[in-house]
Design a protein that fits this description.
By secondary structure, the chain is mostly loops. The chain has a domain of 91 residues: Leucine-rich repeat, LRR (right-handed beta-alpha superhelix) (Alpha-Beta Horseshoe). The strands form two sheets. Strands 3-4-5-6-7-8-9-10-11-12-13-14-15 form a 13-stranded parallel beta sheet, with helices on one face. Strand 14, helix 3 and strand 15 form a beta-alpha-beta unit. It is elongated, with a radius of gyration of 26 Å. Binds to type I and type II collagen.
């Protein structure tokens, strides 16, 4: 199991497999040569996706390509480690099409190629797949099969980052735990795009062009992390799941947050809202006064006052705003031996506060602070 974990990570990171012992080398060579004797009749779905590995026999008087046989045990374009027989490594090989996937595979790595499509039925031969890595390609929504992932009842991780998608892939299997769609061109998330994904724990949608979320999070009772940074959102998403722990919304155009918006997520620990358009007028007095939050990033907005926060907050980033006063009541409503803030890091640099504006009771309230930058 230990080696299996290492091989999985190696495949995702694009790292080549290490050398084998002598006996394993011989076994690998034997298996590889044996595989060349087998073939299959898989044909690309699109005419412009012919395999880029033509073979012309020596002495031929014509240039018509002859395709080499490809094994059902392991496609010749890829590697299938003998000591990890359920993994197929086809990454970083200038592929323009998806090779045949043997039925025994659980982990397939097609990242960093030039693949433009995922045709309908591409994975019908390997319905027990758990991981699919397709990031770093040129896949478009128009050339993705409408139900290409629907039959994969064991799929847990789907990597589609760094492609040319303009729409959310749908439908997706209920087994999915991680969905990676960052660095695409998605503009909106339909309310039913994530329907039924009760096991989804992480959703990565940063660096898209999303301007509308709607009620997409409804029913996602296992969701822990949402990354919607670097998009075009003007408001926060509706209906955060109660399971949520990490929310990343930096580099959007959000200007207001509803009262007690974060109360519905009692496990929320980390919030990033930097580089938005927040003002004090767009916040209620208790917007961020939630006891679960440990880290809050509100840097580079348009705040003129320090918003009230919970005494449990440990890291608060407010640099690059327009704050002109140090209000200790934002951190402590009562100051005595038993009541104080647990804040450890406070950044107020790049505001309009003078260093001598720190109130005299600040050390008693902020007694745990190791870093205060003004």
């Amino acid at each position: 199991m230990h080696w299996a974990s290492i091989l999985i990570v190696a495949g995702l990171c694009g790292v080549s497999l290490g050398q084998y012992e002598d006996e394993e080398d011989m076994y690998w060579l034997h298996q590889y040569l044996r595989s060349q004797a087998l073939s299959y009749n898989y044909m690309p779905y699109y005419e412009d996706e012919a395999p880029p590995y033509p073979y012309v026999s020596p002495g031929s008087s014509f240039a018509e390509p002859i395709l080499e046989p490809v094994s059902r045990e392991c496609p010749q374009e890829c590697d299938c480690p003998p000591n990890f027989s359920t993994a197929l490594y086809c990454d970083s090989r200038n592929l323009r099409y998806l090779p045949f996937v043997p039925s025994r595979m659980k982990y397939v790595y097609f990242q960093n190629n030039q693949i433009t499509s995922v045709q309908e039925g591409a994975f019908d031969n390997a319905t027990t797949l758990e991981w699919i890595a397709l990031h770093g390609n040129q896949i478009t929504s128009e050339k993705m099969g409408k139900r290409v992932f629907a039959r994969l009842k064991n799929l847990e991780r789907l990597y589609l980052d760094n492609n040319n998608l303009t729409k959310m892939p749908s439908p997706l299997p209920r087994s999915l735990r991680e969905l990676h769609l960052a660095y695409n061109q998605i503009t909106r998330i339909p309310s039913n795009a994530l329907e039924g994904l009760e096991n989804l724990t992480a959703l990565y949608l940063s660096h898209n062009q999303i301007h509308d979320i709607g009620a997409s999070f409804k029913g996602l009772k296992s969701l822990i992390l949402v990354d919607l940074s670097y998009n075009h959102l003007r408001k926060v998403p509706d209906g955060l799941p109660s399971s949520l722990e990490q929310l990343y919304l930096e580099h959007n155009y959000i200007y207001t947050i509803p009262d007690e918006y974060f109360k519905v997520s009692p496990k929320l620990l980390y919030i990033r809202l930097s580089h938005n358009s927040l003002t004090n007028d767009g916040l209620s007095s208790n917007t961020f006064n939630t006891s679960s939050i440990l880290e809050l990033d509100l840097s580079y907005n348009r705040l003129q006052k320090i918003p009230r926060v919970s005494t449990n907050l440990e890291n608060l980033y407010l640099q690059g705003n327009q704050i002109n006063e140090f209000s200790i009541s934002s951190f402590c409503t009562v100051i005595d031996v038993m009541n104080f803030s647990k804040l450890q890091v406070l950044r107020l640099d790049g505001n309009e506060i003078q260093r001598n504006a720190v109130p005299p009771d600040a050390p008693l309230c902020l007694r745990r602070a190791a870093v205060i930058e003004i």
